[in-house]
Structure formats: C-alpha cells, structure tokens
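Fold Annotation — chain and its backbone

Fields — amino acid sequence, structure tokens

___
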Amino acid sequence: MYCPGCGKEIPEGIGDVRACPFCGATLGFRPAPEPRPSGIPWEDRAGLGFFGALVATLRMCLTDPTRFYSDLPKRQHLGAALQYLILLTWVGGLGGLFWSLLLRRSQMEMLKSFGFNLPEQAFSVGARVLFTLVFALVIPILVVISTFIWTAVVHVLLWILGGAKEGYEATLRVYAYARGSTALFEWIPFCGGLVALVWGLVLQIIGLARVHGISGAKAALAVLIPLAACCLIVVALVAAFFTAIMAMLGHSGGLS
C-alpha cells in the first residue's frame, strides 16, 4: 500500500492505518490481520466443522501434546471435553468389543491349554448377542462413571503432593482429551488396548504438568500411584480366583 500524498510505501506491519506516518495524509481503513486462534479445535466446531475439528484435535493432542495442553482452557467448555471423551471412547470400545468377539475361539483354546475346560456353549448365541448389544450401549455410562472416579483420585493425589494449582475441572479436561484421543487405538488387534493405555498415561502426565504448572515427576506420581494400586488389587483378585478354582478342583477330585 502506497500513500496517495507522498507516494511512500506504508509498512506491512502496521494494522489499522488511517493516516500516513510520513506526511499525515488520510488513508483508507485497513484492518489488522486476524491472530491465529488459540485453544482446542474441538471447542471451535462451529468454525472448523465437526470432522475438521475432530481430526485437528486428534492430531494436535497425539503429536504435539505440550502445545495442546498449553492452549487448553482450564475451566471453560467442560461439556465439550466430555462429549469428545464419550464419542471417541465409545467408538474405541466398539473396536475392542469387535476383536474380543472375533478372537473368542482363540481365547477359549488358550484357556484350555492352561487346563480350564470351559463349556463353549455356556451361553446361547442369542444371549451372547444380547449381552454384546447391551454392553455396547452402556459403554458411555461406564466411561463417565470411571472418568469422574479416576480424575477425583488423581486430583486428590495432586492436592496431597502440592500440585493441584488449578481446579478439578482442569484435571478432568486433561484426562478427557488424553483418554479420548487414544481410545481409537483399541481398533488395533492384540496390542491396541495396551498402546491406548500407555499413550494415554503419557498424555495425562504431560497435560497435568502443563495445566497445573508442576513438574513432570509430581504429575507422574499422581497418575501412576492409583494405577499401581489398581494393578495390585487386580492381581490379588486373580490370585484369589485361581486359588478358589484349584481348591474346588482338588475337593471334587477328593470326593471322586
């Protein structure tokens, strides 16, 4: 743009220019360029479109989590984060359900190799189909319940460690985007669930550190301590189950 009075070029870095900075001649209005929008693409679906916002959020969270969680609003749009979580965990859960049904016979053969001769027709085909449909429908409910429980435990641990610099909503939003973004990995056969778990934990640690402004060590402790406790509980339950099974087999053998 050139000044009509003195003919000099107006620098491009100047936004709203009404008068020439060299001679003072009146110029036309030139609006400043729009800044790059910050925040989360999913929370701007009106401007980006549903699928555009979804893909952009997935790509940003999975490939550049530091920037993603730096741009994450700490208190706004909690409903949008939960919608993202529910949608993607439902789709991912269907993937896990699909592979469990497809690989059911292989799982039964593996159990038999360990000495568990379970009857293959314990449930009729109709009962199994009904159970699968019901489970697919209740996935969102289970996700919401487990989300609030998990994030409450993590936030309490953050508070104990002196790392809860923001409110519970911030912790919940971190988990919602971390868990939702990795849920689609459950469509990968055999190792998809493990990949989703590990990558989701990494994203949670990065997100908590950025959102609460704490060290990665504190964030890792807040996430890994309850995970370790859950693993110990599961191991204890499995051990008790196998002990009970062996006791029943030994008792039935003794009676015969």
